[in-house]
Every structure is written in structure tokens, then in C-alpha cells.
Amino acid sequence: MSKTYELKTWKPFFEAVINKDKTFEMRKDDRGFEVGDNLRLIEVEADKDLQPTGRVAKYRVTYILRGEQWGVMPEYTISAIK
């Protein structure tokens, strides 16, 4: 069963995702992300105590690389999103 995760995302990275220049999310693998999960990305200001800007984007995880596979840092995951 898929889960939905709310993730704070700094403004430059959020912009890259919604512009389709960035099609992945790299995060600490502490939530147990799985293919099929939904990510609710919440744009935040990095220099203003992570205050949300009000913009939100929703994506689905389509592929995952986990720690030490193909150079991924231990305890991290890279998720392809669509």
C-alpha cells in the first residue's frame, strides 16, 4: 500500500522539479520510501527558518536507488519521481 510523505523542499530545488529539470529526490532513507509512494513537496524559504511559500507539488516515486548502490551515500536514497 502506498504512503504519502510531506517533504520540505528548498525553493531552488522545488523550482527545478516543477520545471522538469530535476526528476529525482535525494533524501535520508529514514522513512522507508517505496516505489509507488506519493511525495507532497512543500516549497520553503531556506533563509527564513524554512517558512513555507504556499506552493506545493505532488509526485509519485517510480524508481529507487538505496545506500551504496551505484555510489549512493550510505543511509540515503535517490528516488525517481514523476
Give the strand content.
over 45%
Low-confidence stretches: none
| Shape type | globular
The CATH topology annotation reads as: Archaeosine Trna-guanine Transglycosylase, Chain: A, domain 4
**What is the CATH superfamily?**
Hypothetical protein
Number of domains: 1
Q: Specify the number of helices.
A: 1
Could you tell me the mean pLDDT? 93
The N- to C-terminal Cα distance equals: 18 Å
CATH architecture call: Roll
Can you put this structure into words, describing what you see?
- This protein has 82 residues and is mainly β.
- It has a single domain, classed as Archaeosine Trna-guanine Transglycosylase, Chain: A, domain 4.
- 10% of the residues lie in helices and 49% in strands.
- It is built from one helix and five strands.
- The protein has one helix at 11-18; strands at 4-10, 24-28, 38-44, 52-66, 76-81.
- It has a five-stranded mixed beta sheet.
- A hairpin with a 7-residue loop joins strand 3 and strand 4 (52-66).
- The two termini are 18 Å apart.
- The model has no long low-confidence stretch (mean pLDDT 93).
Descriptive keywords:
82 residues, mainly beta, Archaeosine Trna-guanine Transglycosylase, Chain: A, domain 4, five-stranded mixed sheet, 5 strands
Question: What's the SSE blueprint?
Answer:
Layout: E1 4-10, H1 11-18, E2 24-28, E3 38-44, E4 52-66, E5 76-81
Parallel strand pairs: 1-3
Antiparallel strand pairs: 2-5, 3-4, 4-5
